[in-house]
Amino acid sequence: MSEVYAARRARLRERCAAAGGEAALVCGDANVRYLAGGAPPGAVLLLGPGQDGDDALVCVSDPFVDATGASRPGDELAVLVLPTPEGDPAVAAAERAAERGVRSLAVEEHHLTVARHRAVRSVAPRLRLGDLGTAVEQQRVVKDDEEISTLRIAAEIADQALGELLESILVGRTERHLALELERRLIDHGADGAAFPTSVGAGPHSGRAGHVPTDRRVEEGDFLSVCLGADYRGYRSEIARTFVIGASPAEWQIELYEQVFAAQRAGREALAPGTAYRDVDRAARVVLEAAGHGERVGPRIGHGVGLENDEDPRLAPSAMGKLDACVPVTVDPGVHLPGRGGVRIDDTLVVRPEADGGPELLTITTKELLAL
User: What distance in Å separates the CA atoms of residue 271 and residue 216, rounded to the nearest whole number?
Assistant: First the structure.
């Protein structure tokens, strides 16, 4: 894999040079990991103008906890461990750049506080600082085969954990207990942990985006919505499903479920290279607006996934840009009716051209309205 990370760094170097920068200071945790192959939280990567491996430096404030895990960069990279844990890797990296004769340094301003930016400038006053912007985040949007393969496994783990839960007795158990069990099952199936806090909502809590589980117990006749994801080797899947507890759903439950399912299907079918982000959002949103739920739809219909659970692209009404092939995204519309509950359906997919079969569905748990 070292050649993969070297190629990523080379691409960023070319982009930085084209913008007039001699070197780049990467500070975002996910961005450092993407370029270095692994790094502990808080590490930074100094990418110089030389050939890859000759002038790339990872700066950390603490020695590595493990020798081979995700917190360790590739062996081809030089590593600077600061003498005290209180040191700032970004400041140390800027100082090292100045010592090497670098005159201009592009930094990720959105990942630096004002205080850290001032500290960087103070140790290298002759260093001209520019903004690298979201260059690394944009480079991360299109995933390579290895990344997609890892995401595929993360999705499979989430499917397995959810499938096992559905085979257990649910009535009488609390939202909090179910969420904890799901997270345990994720780890049992090989995940490094949950991709994000697992959300379980029963009855009037169902369908809420990001609902924090409570001690409310599952009852007969409830909608039960579950949203979870697996973190596998740093890559994160996402899935949400809604079920009915009891023998058969009520008419209003069937109607609402069919409306959200139709919106989710429309969003999935809109995923194709060249489609504008906003058009994917619109495809799903118009279905729910026609059903009278326009004011209940969230600010976006989906988002990218990868080393972060919520990354570019954003599938929202005001989003700019168009989809590329090999971009993993979620499509996750939901509607919550206050006091009654609601429905949320969410899948992780990879954008593929029609010639390759269209969007690849990674999360395959049934979307049929099951009565549990």
Answer: 37
Distance CA 117, CA 163 (A): 48
Residue type, 333: P
Determine the average pLDDT of the residues in 86-103: 91
44-47 and 56-60 beta bridge pairing: antiparallel
Residue 367, Cβ density class (10 Å: 0-12 exposed, 13-18 middle, ≥19 buried): middle
Q: How far are the Cα atoms of 135, 187, 275, 308 from residue 319, in angstroms, in the given order?
A: 17, 35, 12, 19
At residue 68, the pLDDT reads: 45
Strand segments, DSSP code E, in 209-274 are: 223-228, 230-232, 235-236, 239-244
* C-alpha span between 22 and 103 (Å, rounded): 7
List of E strands, the chain:
23-26, 44-47, 56-60, 78-81, 104-107, 128-131, 193-194, 199-202, 223-228, 230-232, 235-236, 239-244, 302-304, 311-315, 328-331, 334-337, 341-344, 347-350, 360-361
Place of tokens 């593929």: 352
Residue written as token pair 């069990």 = 181
**pLDDT by residue (tens digit) across 183-194?**
999 999 999 999
| Residue 324 one-letter amino acid | D
Q: How far apart are CA 364 and CA 160, in angstroms?
A: 10
**What stretches of 1-121 adopt beta strand conformation (E)?**
23-26, 44-47, 56-60, 78-81, 104-107
Q: Compute the distance between CA of residue 71 and CA of residue 232 in angstroms, rounded to an integer.
A: 14
Determine contact, residues 213/176, Cβ cutoff 8 Å: yes
Give yes or no for a contact between 140 and 307, defined as CB atoms under 8 angstroms apart.
Answer: yes
Q: What pTM was computed for the model?
A: 0.93
Q: Angle at Cα 259 formed by Cα 253 and Cα 262, nearest 5°?
A: 135
Angle at 10 between CA 5 and CA 14, to 5 degrees: 150
Is the separation of the CB atoms in 81 and 63 below 8 Å? yes
- Exposed (0-12), middle (13-18) or buried (19+): which is 115, by Cβ within 10 Å? exposed
Average pLDDT for 167-173:
94
